[in-house]
């Protein structure tokens, strides 16, 4: 029967875990700007595409140097 | 003629100036250059997110020279170490996802920048860079070259560590954590299952609940104890006294219950109450982080200015170090930070920040120039008369209004109700105790605590925050931004409205231009327009925009646009002369075209002379805002309306015609006089609302009960005030006032409702029947009904135009 002590303690501990996570999130300023991240996460594709291009540009520059 | 929009900035393209590059159309070289920079660096995705998101880069030559000064730069930085530095820059142009994208990819445009992060609501970008590789000046120049000119003002000078107060969020988090877990653990008690195993674990559950209630009681609710204590000390009974009393009594009684094993106590209601009240507080705080309501002249003034040393070397010095007798160099578009005497021959000074007047004033050598003006045109030199703090304009801030920190100018509606509520509550509690003490001491104690618990004005305390929070959001959507919820109450009390004239009831966006004199042929008009295009004088730009694009019958429009302006000469402060298509055209002041003005009318005009023959003049009239007359008519039925102006009486006639009878018009008011005027009205017992715009209204705005600042561009300039109103919504002012009055009505209705709940609760309490379950039902029920009632009501009033 004493399993109830165990279960309740575990549930409280898990709750405390989430609570601590929330506090740290607030503390590090993750809730200060709640708009920009929502836009930022849509950008990843362009970033990848552009980095590839950048590499190409660098390659070209190197070639020019060779000449 | 089909209108073309610039690929970069979206402005209309004037056919003659169109630039085609990479199969895209641009309105000017600036926009094209930005596009070039982006396409060279593979950043053209910029144009994919939003259509024409850009801004034309402005000429900033020399404007940021002060960034070479190490001392100034170190004051601006957030963090600095050998190879890492962080700076936050305010960029007013940030407005769309394209902006975020380009600004977060700065590292690809400039070596040395390691990362940049945009905070969109605050319109700020935080740049981490390596000061050994790139200087802050280079970064600022880069930003300006792509159309994102940062806004650096004296206000940034002492950034320091900006501490954000997050304690309310923590408190709310703690309260919710406690509330949620306690609710869960209380369920067995609610059903009072008499099963053996639940009975056995009752103690465990109860002590766990007790432990969980502690953080909520001691930490989350701490604000209420402090506030209650303060209000008792100042002998003002506010709503926090019964709240704190209720919470403490509830805690003590519940602890007692658990210790003595009488019952489960009221910990569920206690934590729930704390949580909901904190939620209300949170809801009431609606901040517009991109706006600032506390601005003074510091946010307008530059950080540093160019000083000419005795050995005629130019040097950037911080503004505060400018002394009497110094010689300063003011460039185009730079703000004059101190009063002084003009040394250069001519200056065109735009005082729109100060007075709202858009048309610049011409000053001659030896004239006094006042702080706050913006030089337009050539570089000028001036000698300093007063240091920054002693200048004509900045002196205003030494007035008492700006010194004292007015915490609470008035009683809030909740506080004025609780002035009656608290004594009555205590009376009931003690009389209940007095009645039962003769019958049963135990019940007497129970009744006494139950009364204090159930009467805890939770619903009452929630009414105002939720109503105001909702109204604040509704107004914000309509571009009327309030500093905080208290302003709504103040708005509802207003009985006198004072308007500033220039820039407030007039608009400086467009001028009402009329022509007087001999009729100009279409051909001449076209010639004039062509000449005007070459000039950067604000009057020229306005006139240029005003003149229609004409299509001549004899010449095709295509030919016309090719007409080049030859022998163009602009004489600052006078006008311009040009030879075009064989005609000599002179545009400028009366003196310039050798025309003697018959009467000394105070009006701004541009005179036209073609081939030596005087034709006539274009007159620039004040353009009043749309719907002004209607607004004043509506307002004058419920309020005393006054117009206060720093200008001369030239417009009196027009205003008297336009505005309803009985509107008081006062002219020639200096900034301090405006402040005094408001003070006098208040001394007569009026609640004054001041509507102004420029820095010269700042004193009046601070003195008035509600100071509203009208702003053409809410992101950039507005003096310290209680509310900022977007200039386009000006005609809605009456509606906003009505809405604030209605929200007070809503609160009063909801107070009645919550008092009803208190009566029902008290009926239980006084008879000694308050079970934890009853309390647990009444508390959330009243909260939910009150919150939904006020939200619905205020939304209903808002939709009623």
From TrEMBL, chain A:
<dbReference type="InterPro" id="IPR004714">
    <property type="entry name" value="Cyt_oxidase_maturation_cbb3"/>
</dbReference>
<keyword id="KW-1133">Transmembrane helix</keyword>
<dbReference type="Pfam" id="PF03597">
    <property type="entry name" value="FixS"/>
</dbReference>
<keyword id="KW-0472">Membrane</keyword>
<feature type="transmembrane region" description="Helical">
    <location>
        <begin position="6"/>
        <end position="26"/>
    </location>
</feature>
<keyword id="KW-0812">Transmembrane</keyword>
<protein>
    <submittedName>
        <fullName>Cytochrome C oxidase Cbb3</fullName>
    </submittedName>
</protein>
Automatic annotation (TrEMBL), chain B:
<dbReference type="InterPro" id="IPR023214">
    <property type="entry name" value="HAD_sf"/>
</dbReference>
<dbReference type="InterPro" id="IPR023298">
    <property type="entry name" value="ATPase_P-typ_TM_dom_sf"/>
</dbReference>
<dbReference type="InterPro" id="IPR036163">
    <property type="entry name" value="HMA_dom_sf"/>
</dbReference>
<feature type="transmembrane region" description="Helical">
    <location>
        <begin position="207"/>
        <end position="227"/>
    </location>
</feature>
<dbReference type="Pfam" id="PF00122">
    <property type="entry name" value="E1-E2_ATPase"/>
</dbReference>
<protein>
    <submittedName>
        <fullName>ATPase</fullName>
    </submittedName>
</protein>
<keyword id="KW-1003">Cell membrane</keyword>
<dbReference type="GO" id="GO:0005524">
    <property type="term" value="F:ATP binding"/>
</dbReference>
<dbReference type="Pfam" id="PF00403">
    <property type="entry name" value="HMA"/>
</dbReference>
<dbReference type="InterPro" id="IPR018303">
    <property type="entry name" value="ATPase_P-typ_P_site"/>
</dbReference>
<keyword id="KW-0813">Transport</keyword>
<keyword id="KW-0479">Metal-binding</keyword>
<feature type="transmembrane region" description="Helical">
    <location>
        <begin position="262"/>
        <end position="280"/>
    </location>
</feature>
<dbReference type="Pfam" id="PF00702">
    <property type="entry name" value="Hydrolase"/>
</dbReference>
<feature type="transmembrane region" description="Helical">
    <location>
        <begin position="445"/>
        <end position="472"/>
    </location>
</feature>
<dbReference type="InterPro" id="IPR008250">
    <property type="entry name" value="ATPase_P-typ_transduc_dom_A_sf"/>
</dbReference>
<dbReference type="InterPro" id="IPR059000">
    <property type="entry name" value="ATPase_P-type_domA"/>
</dbReference>
<dbReference type="GO" id="GO:0005507">
    <property type="term" value="F:copper ion binding"/>
</dbReference>
<dbReference type="InterPro" id="IPR021993">
    <property type="entry name" value="ATPase-cat-bd"/>
</dbReference>
<dbReference type="Pfam" id="PF12156">
    <property type="entry name" value="ATPase-cat_bd"/>
</dbReference>
<feature type="transmembrane region" description="Helical">
    <location>
        <begin position="239"/>
        <end position="256"/>
    </location>
</feature>
<keyword id="KW-0460">Magnesium</keyword>
């Amino acid at each position: 029967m004493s399993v109830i002590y165990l279960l309740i303690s575990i549930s409280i501990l898990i709750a405390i875990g989430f609570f601590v996570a929330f506090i740290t999130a607030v503390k590090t300023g993750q809730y200060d700007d709640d708009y920009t991240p929502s836009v930022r996460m849509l950008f990843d594709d362009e970033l990848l595409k552009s980095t590839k291009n950048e590499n190409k540009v660098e390659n070209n520059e190197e070639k020019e140097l060779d000449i | 003629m089909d209108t073309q929009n610039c690929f970069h900035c979206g402005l209309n393209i004037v056919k003659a100036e169109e630039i085609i590059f990479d199969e895209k159309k641009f309105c000017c070289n600036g926009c094209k250059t930005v596009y070039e920079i982006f396409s060279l660096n593979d950043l053209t995705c910029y144009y994919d997110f939003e259509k024409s998101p850009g801004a034309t880069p402005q000429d900033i030559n020399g404007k940021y020279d002060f960034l070479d000064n190490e001392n100034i730069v170190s004051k601006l930085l957030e963090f600095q170490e050998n190879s890492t530095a962080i700076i936050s820059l305010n960029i007013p142009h940030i407005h769309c996802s394209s902006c975020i994208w380009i600004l977060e990819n700065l590292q690809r445009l400039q070596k040395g920048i390691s990362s940049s992060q945009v905070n969109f609501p605050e319109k700020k970008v935080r740049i981490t860079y390596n000061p050994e590789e790139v200087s802050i000046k280079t970064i600022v120049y880069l930003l300006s070259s792509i159309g994102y000119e940062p806004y650096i003002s004296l206000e940034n000078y002492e950034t320091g560590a900006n501490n954000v107060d997050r304690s309310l969020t923590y408190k709310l988090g703690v309260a919710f954590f406690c509330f949620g877990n306690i609710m869960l653990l209380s369920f067995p008690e609610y059903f009072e299952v008499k099963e053996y195993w639940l009975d056995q674990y009752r103690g465990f559950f109860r002590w766990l609940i007790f432990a969980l209630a502690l953080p909520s009681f001691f930490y989350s609710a701490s604000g209420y104890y402090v506030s209650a204590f303060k209000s008792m000390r100042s002998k003002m009974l506010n709503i926090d006294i019964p709240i704190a009393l209720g919470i403490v009594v509830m805690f003590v009684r519940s602890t007692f219950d658990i210790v003595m094993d009488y019952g489960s106590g009221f910990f569920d209601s206690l934590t729930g109450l704390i949580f909901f009240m904190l939620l209300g507080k949170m809801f009431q705080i609606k901040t517009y982080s991109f706006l600032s309501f506390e601005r003074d002249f510091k946010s307008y003034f530059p950080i540093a200015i160019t000083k000419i040393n005795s050995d005629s070397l130019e040097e950037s010095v911080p503004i505060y170090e400018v002394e009497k007798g110094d010689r300063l160099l003011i460039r185009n578009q730079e703000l004059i930070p101190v009063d002084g005497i003009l040394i250069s021959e001519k200056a065109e000074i735009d005082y729109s920040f100060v007075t709202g007047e858009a048309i610049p004033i011409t000053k001659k050598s030896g004239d006094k120039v006042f702080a706050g003006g913006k030089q337009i045109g050539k570089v000028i030199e001036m000698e300093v008369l007063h240091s920054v703090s002693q200048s004509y304009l900045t002196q205003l801030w030494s007035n008492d209004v700006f010194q004292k920190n007015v915490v609470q100018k008035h009683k809030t509606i909740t506080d004025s109700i609780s002035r009656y509520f608290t004594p009555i509550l205590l009376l009931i509690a003690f009389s209940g105790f007095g009645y039962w003490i003769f019958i049963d001491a135990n019940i007497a104690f129970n009744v006494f605590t139950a009364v204090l618990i159930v009467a805890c004005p939770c619903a009452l305390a929630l009414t105002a925050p939720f109503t105001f929070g909702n109204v604040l959001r509704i107004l914000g959507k309509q571009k009327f931004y309030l500093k905080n919820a208290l302003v709504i109450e103040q708005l509802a009390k207003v009985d006198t409205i004072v308007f500033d004239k220039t820039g407030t009831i007039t608009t400086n966006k467009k001028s009402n231009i009329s022509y007087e004199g001999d009729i100009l042929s279409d051909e001449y008009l076209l010639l004039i327009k062509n000449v005007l295009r070459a000039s950067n004088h604000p009057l020229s730009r306005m006139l240029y925009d005003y003149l229609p694009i004409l299509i001549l019958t004899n010449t095709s429009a295509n030919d016309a646009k090719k007409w080049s302006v030859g022998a163009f000469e602009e004489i600052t402060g006078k006008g311009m002369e040009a030879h075009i298509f064989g005609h000599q055209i002179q545009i400028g002041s009366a003196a310039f075209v050798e025309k003697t003005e018959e009467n000394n009318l105070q009006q701004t005009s541009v005179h036209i002379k073609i081939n030596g023959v005087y034709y006539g003049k274009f007159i620039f009239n004040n353009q009043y805002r749309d719907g002004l007359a209607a607004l004043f008519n509506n307002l004058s039925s419920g309020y005393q309306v006054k117009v206060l102006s720093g200008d001369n009486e030239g417009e009196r006639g027009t205003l008297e015609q336009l505005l309803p009878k009985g509107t008081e018009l006062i002219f020639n008011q200096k900034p301090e006089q405006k402040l005094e005027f408001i003070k006098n009205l208040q001394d007569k017992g009026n609640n004054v609302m001041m509507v102004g715009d420029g820095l010269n209204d700042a004193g009046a705005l601070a003195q008035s009960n509600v100071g509203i600042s009208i702003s053409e561009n809410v992101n950039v300039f507005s003096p310290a005030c209680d509310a900022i109103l977007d200039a386009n919504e000006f005609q809605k002012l009456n509606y906003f006032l009505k809405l604030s009055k209605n929200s007070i009505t809503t609160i009063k209705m909801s107070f009645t409702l919550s008092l009803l709940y208190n009566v029902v609760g008290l009926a239980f309490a006084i008879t000694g029947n308050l079970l934890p379950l009853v309390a647990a039902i009444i508390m959330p029920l009243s909260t939910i009904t009150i919150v939904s009632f006020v939200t619905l009501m205020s939304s209903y009033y808002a939709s009623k135009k």
